[in-house]
Every structure is written in structure tokens, then in C-alpha cells.
Fold this protein.
Amino acid sequence: MSDFIQKMSNSNLGRSVLANLGLPTPIELRRFNPAQKTFFKGDLLLGTAKGSELLDQVCANLKDSEARVYFAANTLLSGVVSDAITGANIEARQIHAEKGHVKEKFRALVFDATGVKTTEGLKELYDFFHPVLRNLAPSARVIIIGRPPQQAATPEAAAAQRGIEGLSRSIAKEIGKKGATCQVVYVENGADQELNSSLQFLLSAKSAYVSGQVITVKKSDQVAMPTNWARPLEGKVVLVTGGSRGIGESIARVMARDGAKVVVLDIPPAAQQLEKVAGEIGGLPLVADISAKDAPRKIADFLKNECGGVDVVVHNAGITRDKTLANMPAQWWAMTIDINLSSEERINEVLLGEQVMNDNGRIVCVSSMNGIAGQVGQTNYSTSKAGVIGYVQYMAPRLERGITINAVAPGFIETAMTDAIPFMTREFGRRLNSLSQGGKPVDVAETIAFFSSPASSGVTGNIVRVCGQCIVGA
């Protein structure tokens, strides 16, 4: 079902009515178009703090984009920025970034804050962002790059780097009315080369409904850059559970778009729709009930015999059985925990233990905002989705052979399930985020595709909320 308020905001009369009612007027988010030649196009302003270390890496990455790069000529560090730009062999323009004097409308602001090691040093972020935040274009991107506070050499540095996260989340809330987003990327020491995939995803239109998030990039010995950024999963085999409809179908289609051979799995009652989706994307259907005792064996044998192994496993299948805890039948509790959580553990145990998953593989689990914030009448569902997060965080440092594991936590995503929600409740749910609108299944799929990329070898143990910076649980 379409967003009634968003449709109203597309006309002058509608905007006037919404304004008089005090309601938000969400803009249509700029999402990825396969016709785009590069991950980013538009005006981009670069900044850096004194002693920062990743600007050269950022500039080298921008060489593969269609960015018109700017830097502030009136800052003390303009020479440092200029040198990084020159070293990357990209063109850039100087601007005088006094407040009220900037005329450009930036599609991105990128600030390297890895050199901020004292709380006084946080003033450098204020000096960069203060004059230009009003000059953001619709659906703009703001990215702050730092070092993980846990790796800081001093308590002052830890405090300063953790402060960046609070700044980022607040900026995201201030600019969300423009459809703009803000994120932090913490890059561990020695992981500089692994920054690229996170930077490209967050600058791109693929991250339209991701905002106020923190991604940590870790050092990896398995860096494998794709030869074609438009089809990074070329030659890869991807398993998507619950892939016949909704978010799962969108995941399967995006994975196929990115070049993968997709094995689409769903339960017997969904077999007809499963065959349709698999046929349309050139994939393989696999009918199986993931809660069955023989499911891990059936899945592993299929992947070995039909595909020679698997590179990416997306655990998307899940159910809801909603009642307050006091009224919930025991079988509803058991069924939800088993399908949403325990089945993933069992399947992974076989695929990893028998090395059906290939080296440099990817595991992506679908959690939920309700696993973070909880929800009335969903104690079983929230427990299972919180358990997914715990599982991912435990497994990440223990996986070998270059295999990564991450999770997405969707918020209000427009699906057949949300269409069934009563009108006023649905409208309220859509507005409870900084972007004032619901997300689309493709937003979840794009984030999963980012985790799945061969270039994301340093991205593991992350829980990224695809929720437009939902106010609940933020």
C-alpha cells in the first residue's frame, strides 16, 4: 500500500494541508538505479582533523566515482587535503566555507576524524560541519570516519572518538527531513585498505534508508576486490531462505542483479511462488522447511551437488506468532524461537563444519528493530531476534577462512504484513524515524548485498539497522 502522506506531499496543496496539521512532509528518497555508472555522482566536500590518517584512502576511493570534490580553503589543514587529492590524482576545487557564503548544494560531506584524540579536538568537527549543513542537497550523505574507541591509547581519545557517534546520530536527526543520512565508520588500526566497501555503500543511493548507524571495519587477511563494481557477486552462489516473497524476494533479486547464482529456499506451501521467483532471476528453487530435523542435511547436500558449495548464506526466513506473554501458548513460543533462531544455528553448523561454505564466505542474518527495542505482544519474536544479534556477535571473531557474519535489523518496511496494519497505526509507525517514512524491501536487500560483497572482508560482527533511524530503540 502506498504512503498516503508522502503522496500528499508531492503537491503544493498537499504540503499546505500537512503543514497546517503539523504533520511531516517526507520526500521521496533517492534509491539506486542500475543505470548509474558509479557509486556516487555530485558535489562532495572533504574535511579532516589534524593528525588524521585516512584521507589518502578516501581520495583514492573517490577516483572511481563521479564526484566533484571540494575542500575548504580557509581551514588550517587545506594544504593537507590538497596533498591527499593530488596524490590520488583527482580534481578538486577550493571553497571558502564561511557560514552563509557557500553556494554549492552538496550531495555528500566526508570528514576524516581519525586524528581527534582529545575532547577539545572535537571542535574541528564543529568547524567543518557548522557552515555547510544547510547546504545539503536532498538525499545527501554525511560520513564521519574515526577509530574504534576501544582501541584508543588514552581515555581522552576514547571519549573523543565515542563522542563522534553522538554527533553523528544527532546530525542524522537534524538532516533527516531532507532525506539525508549520517553515519560513522570506525576503522581499526591496520584496516585502512578495508574501508572502501563501507565508504562506497554509504555514499551510494543503496543506503537510502540507513541512517544514524555505526559500522566497524576490522583488519582482514582476505581482501578480495571485485573486478566489476556493478556485479560484485559475479560467479558467487547465494542461498536466501524465505525467498519467495516480501523482503526475501527482494534480497534474491538484488543478489541476482549483482551477478550471483541464487538458490531461493522456502516452505512447500510457497513452492509455486518460489519457482516463479527463481525462474525470473535465473536461480534455483529449493523447497524445504528449515525447522525440520533433516533440513540442514538437505540444504548442504543440495548446495554441494548442484552448486559445488555456497559463498553467501542469507538467513531471512522467519515467522511471527503474536500474543502477550501471559496469553501466549507454549507452542507459539517454541515455534518462533526454533524457526527464527535455532534453525540458523543448525544450518550454519553443518555448512561451516563440512566446509560447504567456501573460503571468504559471507553469512548475513536478518534480525529486527523489535529485537533491539522490544515490542508489546512479541516477546517470542523479540527474544528470537535479539538472539540473532547475540549469535552474530559471538561468531564474528571465531569464524575462520575469511568468513564474515553480520546482521541487519529492519524497522518499518512496507510489505504485505504492514499493509494489514490498521491505517492510523500504520501511519504512526511510518513516521517514527528521522526520514518520516517507511522503508522498502529493497533497502534491506541493498544492505545485505553490501555485507555480501567480496570487498567487505573487513566488515564482520556488525548490526546495521535499516530503519531510517527509528526513534524507538535509537
In short: The first strand starts at residue 41 and ends at 48. Residues 176 and 435 are 5 Å apart (CA to CA).
